[in-house]
Amino acid sequence: MKVESKKEKYKEATIRNIIEKELESLNYNFEYIGTRYIADAIYLLYSLKMYYKFSLESDVYPAIANMYGDNSNAIKGTITYATDKMFFDCDERILKKYLDDKNNRVSKPGPKTIIRAVLKKIKNYPDWKLNSIWIFFY
How far apart are CA 6 and CA 10, in angstroms? Predict the structure, then answer.
């Protein structure tokens, strides 16, 4: 039972690390609290296997607000702010490639677009990589 708990904690930490690396690759700034919130939102949706069909207003913002003792509007505002800042800090080519955008110019993506793109990229992360460290303990 204790090994399973450690294994789950390791898996959660690994997924959270992968999410942070993805956001860093888009030049999200972790000094903004909205970046932390969007990372938590991605992890929440990943955990619930809600990769495509979700509502930020009813599914995500209230859950994050509950985690931090804040309100949904504040969560939405900080995530939007962090996403706006990312758009201006991220190289257009990187953003186009990440969002698989075939247009000549990238328009400013909203938080849901970014969340879906990150979920699409990480949802099929090989499970064996998440569990590989535990081979040494058995």
Answer: 6
